[in-house]
Structures are given as C-alpha cells and as structure tokens.
Amino acid sequence: MGIKRYFATQDNTISNAFKNDLRNRATGSNAGASDILEAFVIHGQTSASVDSVSAEQARILLQFDMNEVLDDIANGVVPSSSVDYVLKMYNAPHADTTPLSYSLDVIMLTQSWTEGRGLDIDEYSDNGVCNWISSSVGTFWGSDPGNPATRITGGYFETGENASASYFFSGGVEDLNLNVNFAIDRWRSSGSAYNHGFILKHTDDVIAGQHGTFFTKKFFGRNSEFYFKRPVLEARWDSSRKDNRGNFLVSSSLADGSDNLNTLFLYNNVRGQLKNIPGLKDNLLRLKVYSGSATTAGTNSILIIDSDNNAEHNLTGGILIENGVEVSGVYTCSFATTSSNEYLYDVWYTASNGGTTEFFTGSYEPVTLKALELIYDDEYVTDITNLKSSYIKGQKPRLRVFPRKKNWNPNIYTVATAEVVPEVIEDGYYRLHREVDNLEIIPFGTGSAVKEFTRMSYDVSGSYFQLDTSYLEPGYTYKIQFVYYLQGEYRQQPETFKFRVEEPAP
C-alpha cells in the first residue's frame, strides 16, 4: 500500500471582511478552532468613502508536521524519491453562493504563525492570533515584523518561482487534490524549520476586481467531526513487487528490452520470519539457470542476459531495497533468456573458498510471446481468498487476490486432478469505499498524472496487496473493488468485497 497520510497540525481562516456594520473590518478575527476553512473575494459591498481598500478577502492557512515526513523517509516508511505529495482538502457544502470557474493559489508561507482558538467565521466575533494583521502575539506579518515600514497584511508568503501552484474549480464545489512536491522538495532540502505551511487565496486578478465577486469556497478543517474530511498531505508511491515466476517471458523481438526482463525473488523464511541469510558478503547471491524436465533440472547452465544486455552463465542478485531500506530475507535478480525449454530452474548460491553453497532452487515454465491476429477479449472472475469479515483498527493484513478467466470450463478430470492456477494480472489496482455512504476512501491509483499507488504486487500465487486499516474509521463497513488494465484500457471488475473495522480492545 503505497500511501502515507499526514493530517494538518494547525489551520486557520484570516479575513479583512467587513463586519455586519459594513464600516469596521474583521482584521483582528481568528478562527483557529473552527471546523470550517473559507476563501473568498468580495467587491463593491461598500463605497470608497467608507474604506479605500475595495476587496474583502478570506484566506486559509494550513500547516503539516514536516519532521514526521522526514522521519518516515529516514526509516524507510516512505521512499526518498519517486513519491508524489498531494494536498487534499474536502469541500464543505453550505447555503451561501458558491462561485464558478476560479482558481485558488496554494503558496508557501515564509513566516511562522500561531493557530489560535477562535470559532466564529460568520460574524467575526472572536478576536485573537493569528489574524489578517498578526502572525502571532505581538508579531506582525512581514519581512521585519518589528518595523512598521515593512509590515504587510493577509499573510507573508513567497513570491518567487517554485513556491506555489494553482488548482482550478470549474463547478466550485470540487475537492482540492493538488501535487505539492514543489514545497516538500524545498522543505526537505532546507530543513523542516523552514516549513511554515501554506496559504490558500484567490488569484491576484480576482483580488484586483477583474472578474467580480467570488463568494464563497469552504473546506472542512482539521477540527471537523467528519473523519475522512480533514485536510491531509498524502504521500503516494508505487509499492508493488513484480515477481515473474508465474509469468516468465522468453526474450522476444516482439518486446522491448524492459519487457523482456524478468524478475525473480528468493524469500528466506525462518520459523515464519523473513531473515537474512547469514554469512553473505554484502548480502549478495549468485544465480544460475538450468533447463530441464517437469521433475528434474539439467546439468548444464544456460546463458542468461543481464539488464545491460550481456549474456552470462551466472548473475549477481542482491537483497531487496524498498524505500531506500533493505528488506530482511528477500533477495532479487532480474534477467532475460532466449531459452524456450518447457521448464527452467533457477539456482541461488554463493561461492567462497573454492566451494559452492546452494540456498534455493526454484522452477517455472517460461512463456513464448506470439503475435496474434486477434486480440482476445478476456473476462475475469476475482476473489480474495483470505479476506476476513472484520479487522481491528491498526491491523495490516496481506490480502491475496485470485483472478481466473471467466470462460474457464474444466472437465471432470481437470476438476479432480488439477489445481486452479490464478491468472497473473500485471496491472491490477484496488480502491476502498465506505459502504454506508459510498464515500471513496482510497481511489484507484492509476494513470500517469499520479504515482500508481494502489497497484497490486504479484508472484507465482497471483496478486496481493497490504491493507492498512489504521487509515480507516472504526465502526464502519468498507468495500474493496478492483480494476485491471487489459488490452489498452482499464476494466473495472464487477465483484465487491466487504469487511468491517472495529475499535481495539481497551
């Protein structure tokens, strides 16, 4: 499961809107404890004789704990590269007018601020910090907060390149789902002390009055009672493992170099625990491949081709590295072969002091790629073989997904003598919904715009993925669905699988 969520540590709405008397502005108001965040621009509500500043605004401040992100990267919970960080905020329905066709700028703040404990965003009755003019008690916004000449209002934020991004709302009521790698990269390189969060505001042309009034966009804040509606920073990455023992392709001119490569794994399971093989230098193993029959390997190794297109009789495999950290007891090697023998055997060994120690011998049936005149429109039946009816919040079960061809029609002999072999779906994805309201908790992580963060792993036994129930609110039933990328298109599978999440025992 290539997802890690970080919830906001502080948020606030700051505003210079007029109060109900339409003469005094709410520049001292604070809404740090409110469950709603708000952004708007209002023009023309009062005459210039009342106030020379035409625009009334509300802006959103938001911050996450960057130290938690850095710790997860250092500990291998999140990869150090090839990660998308997505800011997610959820639309809060309301009875006021909702603007259409506008963008909000999401910009890095350059000054620390205090959330405050105000609640009221309607009448602005709660004064406190931070607010439109102050970032914290006794401190104004600006490059030199103690100097009146450099004071600014409405938040102090960056104006240079790679400091902001915009999100467009066509209908006005959409959720915000924005890649903020620009900020995470800066905070990682500069240090978490430079993380002051984001400010969300309308674009400068809207503030200048070029498009009229935009009132009002509201989001759920971090104090919302709705568990899945709180602002969240979501790290997404492809965490899938691709073990080709069940779909090993013979090297062919019909495929490019990367598609001809196959990856095999060795799992050193000791008393139910994956552990490193003792005594290996640099955790490296050697690998040879032999042709043979269904029951016996041959005596001579065949040539295998490494990732640099060199043909060798043996290759070096090493311990698996995931998220920048070694995975105990898991070894891997990638190679290609032109051998079309019916059975192949992979032998993992080490050689030292003139001797050879073999650790594992596996077998597989390679598949020869063929060009077809017709593309078969295969349909599948999917099952989760080890799904339980309920889980305790925090459990992380590895779920086994078993797809087979829908048109598989065994005869009596086949049913009695043969085990059903699962189909290997190389591009299979899952999503989660809450059953009571069909709220999407985790979407299908497909496409090029985002990391394929819900792509399932696969091995000789079929597909699998790890379900992290720590993200789920207990007391509810959830649904799992799948989509497979087949014949150049995504095909959602008809089956739905349900489970419930319960509170841990006190």
Quick overview:
7% of the residues lie in helices and 39% in strands. The chain is mainly beta and 506 residues long. The protein folds into three domains: 3-236, no CATH class; 244-364; 380-502, Immunoglobulin-like.
Give the topology.
Blueprint: E1 3-7, E2 10-15, E3 36-42, E4 56-63, H1 66-74, E5 84-89, E6 102-108, E7 134-136, E8 139-142, E9 151-152, E10 164-169, E11 176-179, H2 181-190, E12 198-202, H3 204-207, E13 214-220, E14 232-236, H4 257-260, E15 262-267, E16 269-270, E17 273-274, E18 284-292, E19 297-301, E20 304-305, E21 311-312, E22 315-322, E23 325-335, E24 343-352, E25 355-364, E26 380-384, E27 390-392, E28 398-405, H5 412-417, E29 428-434, E30 440-442, E31 457-459, E32 462-466, E33 476-486, E34 489-492, E35 497-502
Parallel strand pairs: 27-35
Antiparallel strand pairs: 1-14, 2-4, 3-4, 3-13, 4-12, 5-11, 5-14, 6-10, 6-12, 7-8, 8-9, 15-23, 16-17, 18-19, 18-22, 18-24, 20-21, 22-23, 24-25, 26-28, 28-32, 29-30, 29-33, 31-32, 33-34, 33-35
Helix segment tally: 5
**Beginning-to-end CA distance, first to last residue:** 27 Å
* Residue share in helix: under 10%
Strand percentage lies at 35-45%
Give average pLDDT, whole number. 91
Instruction: Please tell me the total number of domains.
Output: 3
Total number of strands: 35
Our Rg estimate from Cα atoms comes to 29 Å
Largest sheet: 7 strands, antiparallel
Could you say which structural class the secondary elements and strand pairing correspond to? mainly beta
